[in-house]
Design goal:
This protein is α/β, with parallel strands linked by helices and 177 residues long. Helix content is 25%, strand content 18%. It is built from four helices and seven strands. The strands form two sheets. A four-stranded parallel β-sheet has the order 3-2-1-4, sandwiched between helices. The protein has a three-stranded antiparallel β-sheet with strand order 6-5-7, covered by helices on one side.
């Protein structure tokens, strides 16, 4: 049986589909408490209310597949179409990232730094990319996580979800990137 982590899980549409296809969901996260309550009713009790910006790889159980329907209002014709924007935590520069300008580092055009966060909801995509990079680094090098001690709230929330959520990491193949 394949295992799944369900990020930005919402009410459970993706999770339910994977579950019905025979996958075992080992972790699910959403920021919205009402979405989490609905997911719990629709899919299962393994869901955790958490802010992905505060998560690190230690919060994510090992899984064969990661599913994520990241917020896309900024890209949709039904939304404001603001695009995916990042904000540099060092100098405050906000810039748009597109398929043409994307790089793994996403260097700030203002200062050249890599310390940035999502400036639009659709920018949460890069939080998944950050977690995947942490998983790849951890699987390849066995090094300490970059977020040690920074994200206690998520760790506490994950721990309170019970023993269904194993504290380990996702092993990501270097060839997948």
């Amino acid at each position: 049986m394949y295992t799944l982590n369900d990020f930005f899980c919402g009410c459970g549409g993706l999770g339910l589909g994977f579950q019905n296809a025979g996958f075992k969901i080992v972790g699910a996260w959403d920021f919205d408490k009402y979405a989490v309550a609905t997911y719990r009713e629709n899919v299962g009790d393994h869901v955790v209310q958490a802010d992905i910006q505060k998560m690190c790889i230690e919060d994510v159980p090992k899984a064969d597949v990661w599913a994520f329907g990241f917020p896309c209002q900024d890209l949709s014709v039904a939304g404001k179409q603001a695009g995916i924007k990042l904000e540099c935590a060092d100098c405050g520069t906000v810039w748009e990232v597109s398929a043409e300008t994307y790089s793994e580092e996403n260097l700030c055009p203002g200062c050249g730094g890599t310390n940035h966060r999502a400036a639009t909801r659709s920018g949460m995509f890069f939080e998944i990319m950050r977690l995947l990079a942490e998983a790849r680094e951890r699987a390849g090098e066995g090094s300490e996580s970059a977020c040690s001690g920074k994200r206690e709230g998520v760790k506490e929330a994950s721990a309170s979800a019970g023993s269904r959520i194993r504290k380990s990491w996702v092993q990501v193949s270097r060839t997948a990137f």
